[in-house]
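Researcher: We plan to redesign the surface later, but first we want a full-length starting point. Tokens attached.
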């Protein structure tokens, strides 16, 4: 699970300082953060388990997977965020500007950020994260592309307010 939060520094003096400190305190509250991935209660438990096995890898066979060998780490959430960090920073800056300049509700901006980041994670799954599937897995599911089988993993990726 990835948690995206916002922060700012206050560098001005006078009345503006109090105003900015108040905004900073509001942005640090838990209701002004978003989680992307498989938030509790938003995805079936079996899909969450598959996501954990694939994201972090396993030493031995994943129970119920049928292949018996170790599962290599394929950190699809981390890769999606890392590969798109400049775009995410730009989104966060736009949210902050909207709050400061136009008085926009932070939850609305964070909702857009959550939807955007969800799309990035789903795109990473579709693109495929190395290494390719093992010959045994290819035989079982008929594809060398990891993370893509029934589409349940991609379909379960979502976001929620933290």
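Model: Full-length starting sequence:
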């Amino acid at each position: 699970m990835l948690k995206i939060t916002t922060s700012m520094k206050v560098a001005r003096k006078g009345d503006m300082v109090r105003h900015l400190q108040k905004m900073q305190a509001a942005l640090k509250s838990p209701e002004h953060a978003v989680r992307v991935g498989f938030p509790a209660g938003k995805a079936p438990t079996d899909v969450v388990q598959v996501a954990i096995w694939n994201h972090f890898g396993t030493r031995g066979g994943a129970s119920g997977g049928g292949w018996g060998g170790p599962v290599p780490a394929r950190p699809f959430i981390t890769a999606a965020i890392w590969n798109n960090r400049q775009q995410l920073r730009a989104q966060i800056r736009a949210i902050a500007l909207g709050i400061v300049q136009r008085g926009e509700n932070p939850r609305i901006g964070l909702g857009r950020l959550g939807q955007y980041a969800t799309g990035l994670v789903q795109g990473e799954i579709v693109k495929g994260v190395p290494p390719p599937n093992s010959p045994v897995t290819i035989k079982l599911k008929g594809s060398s592309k990891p993370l893509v089988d029934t589409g349940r993993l991609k379909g379960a990726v979502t976001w929620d307010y933290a």
